[in-house]
Each structure stands twice: as structure tokens, then as C-alpha cells.
Design brief:
This protein has 3 helices and 5 strands, in the order αββαβββα. By secondary structure, the protein is of the alpha+beta class. It has a single domain, classed as Beta-Lactamase (2-Layer Sandwich), CATH 3.30.450.30. Strand 1 and strand 2 form a beta hairpin.
Length: 116
Amino acid sequence: MFQQALGDLNGSSADIEASALISTDGLMIASALPHDMDEDRIGAMSAALLSLGDRTARELGRGVLGRVLIQGERGYVIMSAAGPEAVLTVLAKPNAKLGLIFLDIKRATETLSQLI
């Protein structure tokens, strides 16, 4: 069911290139990533960045963390909590329509958090 939810997310927009569901301790739960990506490394980095983003938001008085967004010259990495025990990481194209992707991610995190 996790794979189906990730497949639906990836298919929801041509701007979404890949996605993964990762436990907060960095273990890969399910992924729809390219074969040349190291799932263990992505899992560890995603969990660490979401944790750091959460702490930063709290320490700086910004409230509950919504997402962590990384913009690079080849696109975006977007991380969002999928319930209290998982992180959804999404890779998007550089010219992506972020508003639509954020909406798709919100829907996916709601679905995935119910499955966990």
C-alpha cells in the first residue's frame, strides 16, 4: 500500500521525479527512487534534516514545521512529516510548480500517515 501511495504521488504531477517514505530513524519504508540512488544514505539524510528543521522551527519560534525545502540547480528536495514516525521525501524538477506539488505532498502525507 505504501508503494501504491508513492506511485500515485509520482503520477500526480510531471514535475515530481521520485519519492520515498522513510522512518524517523532513517530506515527506508518504501521508495520510488531511481536505481542509482543509495536508499540508505537518502534515508539517513532525510530523517536528520527533518529533525533539524523541526528543532530549528521550534527554537526560532516559527511553530510546527511544515516542510524542509532544498533548492539546487537541478531541482528541489522536499521533505515533510508523514505522521509522527515517518518522513516523505520528494524530488522535483527545477521548473516545478511548487504550490501544486505542496498540495500533492499534503494529500500523500495524510494517506501515508493513516497507513503507518
